[in-house]
């Protein structure tokens, strides 16, 4: 089975390919000739995942899935949420985003947060949604050099290391994206 993954993020592609069974071949946007920026203008994480998957289905007529992920920090009323990738500006720089978040949390004692991923699968004319989330805390400084995004400042509950201090395999077993992908894979195996 071939599926397009509607993302230009090579880190996400690598992480997701690792989780998929060998029977599913992931096609990148580049492979299908999609070089344009896919809109992400919805007000929710779910809405962005749906918008990206629908864009590929409508413009390329291919089975595909898209994800959107947000980090929701309790003391900041759910920020950065749907704006996680561009929290510090349109340049989408992970270090700038983490720095802004750490500054905004500098006077807060509540550092509870959760990562949330929604995957939208468009296959054979039908749409399916899968969601994964993981609770944790935000550190006071960056730790580790694995992963991407906010990984260096997020410690999942039950662990004493950030996502960036874990191997990709360790992170994938417990992460928000890993949980959502597992649901996707289980669904696809039944098809």
Topology:
Elements (H helix, E strand, L loop, with lengths): L1 E4 L4 H10 L5 E3 L17 H16 L3 E10 L6 E2 L12 H11 L7 E12 L2 E13 L15 E3 L11 H7 L1 H14 L2
Parallel strand pairs: 1-2, 1-3
Antiparallel strand pairs: 3-4, 3-5, 5-6, 6-7
Q: Report the biggest beta sheet as strand number plus sense, adding barrel if it closes.
A: 7 strands, mixed
The name of the CATH architecture is Alpha-Beta Complex
Question: What spatial form do the alpha-carbon principal axes imply?
Answer: globular
The CATH topology turns out to be: Maf protein
SS elements, strand count: 7
Instruction: List low-pLDDT spans.
Output: none
Give the terminus-to-terminus CA distance: 10 Å
The first-level CATH class is given as Alpha Beta
Mean pLDDT: 93
User: Helix share of residues?
Assistant: 25-40%
- Roughly what fraction of the amino acids lie in strands? 15-25%
Total count of helical runs of at least 4 residues: 5
- CA radius of gyration: 16 Å
- Tally of discrete structural domains: 1
Following the backbone from N to C, one meets helices and strands in this order, namely EHEHEEHEEEHH
- What structural class do the secondary elements suggest? alpha/beta
Characterise this structure.
This protein is α/β, with parallel strands linked by helices and 191 residues long. It has one domain (2-189): Alpha-Beta Complex (Maf protein), CATH 3.90.950.10. Helices cover 30% and strands 25% of the residues. The radius of gyration is 16 Å and the shape is globular. It starts with a strand and ends with a helix. It catalyses: ITP + H2O = IMP + diphosphate + H(+); XTP + H2O = XMP + diphosphate + H(+); dITP + H2O = dIMP + diphosphate + H(+). Keywords: Hydrolase, Magnesium, Metal-binding, Nucleotide metabolism, Nucleotide-binding. Substrate binds at residues 7-12, 69, 148-151, 171, 176-177.
């Amino acid at each position: 089975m071939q599926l397009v993954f509607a993302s230009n993020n090579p880190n996400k592609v690598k992480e997701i390919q690792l989780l998929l069974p060998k029977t599913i071949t992931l096609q990148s946007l580049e492979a299908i000739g999609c070089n344009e920026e896919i809109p992400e203008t919805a007000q929710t994480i779910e809405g962005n995942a749906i918008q990206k998957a629908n864009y590929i289905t409508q413009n390329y007529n291919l089975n595909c899935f898209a994800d959107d992920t947000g980090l929701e920090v309790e003391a900041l009323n759910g920020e950065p949420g749907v704006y996680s990738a561009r929290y510090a500006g349109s340049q989408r720089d992970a270090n700038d985003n983490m720095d802004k978040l750490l500054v905004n949390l500098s006077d807060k004692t509540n550092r509870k947060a959760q990562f949330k991923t929604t995957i939208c699968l468009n296959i054979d004319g039908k749409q399916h949604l899968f969601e994964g989330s993981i609770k944790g805390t935000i550190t006071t400084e960056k730790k580790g050099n694995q992963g991407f995004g906010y990984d260096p400042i997020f410690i999942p509950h039950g662990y004493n290391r950030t996502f960036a201090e874990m191997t990709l395999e360790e992170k994938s077993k417990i992460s928000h994206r890993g949980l959502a992908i597992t649901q996707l894979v289980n669904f696809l195996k039944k098809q």
